[in-house]
Amino acid sequence: MSTMNMIQAINSALDVMLGRDDNVVVFGEDVGYFGGVFRATAGLQKKYGKTRVFDTPIAEGGILGTAIGMGVYGLRPVAEIQFADYIYPAFDQLVSEAARLRYRSGGEFWAPITVRAPCGGGIFGGQTHSQSPEGVFTHVCGLKTVIPSNPYDAKGLLIAAIEDDDPVIFFEPKRIYNGPFDGHHDRPLQPWSKFPQSEVPDGYYRIELGKAAVARPGSAVTVLAYGTMVHVCLAAVEETGIDGEVIDLRTLVPIDLDTIVESVKKTGRCVIVHEATRTSGFGAELSALVQENCFYHLEAPIERVTGWDTPYPHAFEWQYFPGPARVGRALKKVMEG
Amino acid sequence: MSTMNMIQAINSALDVMLGRDDNVVVFGEDVGYFGGVFRATAGLQKKYGKTRVFDTPIAEGGILGTAIGMGVYGLRPVAEIQFADYIYPAFDQLVSEAARLRYRSGGEFWAPITVRAPCGGGIFGGQTHSQSPEGVFTHVCGLKTVIPSNPYDAKGLLIAAIEDDDPVIFFEPKRIYNGPFDGHHDRPLQPWSKFPQSEVPDGYYRIELGKAAVARPGSAVTVLAYGTMVHVCLAAVEETGIDGEVIDLRTLVPIDLDTIVESVKKTGRCVIVHEATRTSGFGAELSALVQENCFYHLEAPIERVTGWDTPYPHAFEWQYFPGPARVGRALKKVMEG
Amino acid sequence: MAQHSSSAPSAAPAARTPLRLHIPEPPARPGDKPDFSYVRVPPAGSLPRPPIDAPERALREYAEGLIRVLDDDGRAVGEWDPKLDAETLRQGLRAMMLTRTFDDRMLRVQRQGKTSFYIKSTGEEAVAVAQAYALDPDDMLFPSYRQQGLLIARGHSLVDMMCQIFNNTRDRLKGRQLPIMYSVREKNFFSISGNLGTQYPQAVGWAMASAMKGDTRIAASWVGEGTTAEPDFHHALTFASVYQAPVILNVVNNQYAISSFQAIAGGERATFAARAIGYGIPGLRVDGNDFLAVYAVTRWAAARARANLGPTLIELFTYRAAAHSTSDDPSAYRPLDESQYWPLGDPIERLKQHLILRGEWSEAQQQALAKALDEQVRADLKEAESYGTLGTPPASPKTMFEDVFKHMPPHLIKQRQEMGY
Amino acid sequence: MAQHSSSAPSAAPAARTPLRLHIPEPPARPGDKPDFSYVRVPPAGSLPRPPIDAPERALREYAEGLIRVLDDDGRAVGEWDPKLDAETLRQGLRAMMLTRTFDDRMLRVQRQGKTSFYIKSTGEEAVAVAQAYALDPDDMLFPSYRQQGLLIARGHSLVDMMCQIFNNTRDRLKGRQLPIMYSVREKNFFSISGNLGTQYPQAVGWAMASAMKGDTRIAASWVGEGTTAEPDFHHALTFASVYQAPVILNVVNNQYAISSFQAIAGGERATFAARAIGYGIPGLRVDGNDFLAVYAVTRWAAARARANLGPTLIELFTYRAAAHSTSDDPSAYRPLDESQYWPLGDPIERLKQHLILRGEWSEAQQQALAKALDEQVRADLKEAESYGTLGTPPASPKTMFEDVFKHMPPHLIKQRQEMGY
Ligand SMILES: Cc1ncc(C[n+]2csc(CCOP(=O)(O)OP(=O)(O)O)c2C)c(N)n1
Ligand SMILES: Cc1ncc(C[n+]2csc(CCOP(=O)(O)OP(=O)(O)O)c2C)c(N)n1
Ligand SMILES: [Mg+2]
Ligand SMILES: [Mg+2]
Question: In angstroms, what is the span from residue B61 Cα to ligand 1's centroid?
Answer without folding.
Answer: 15
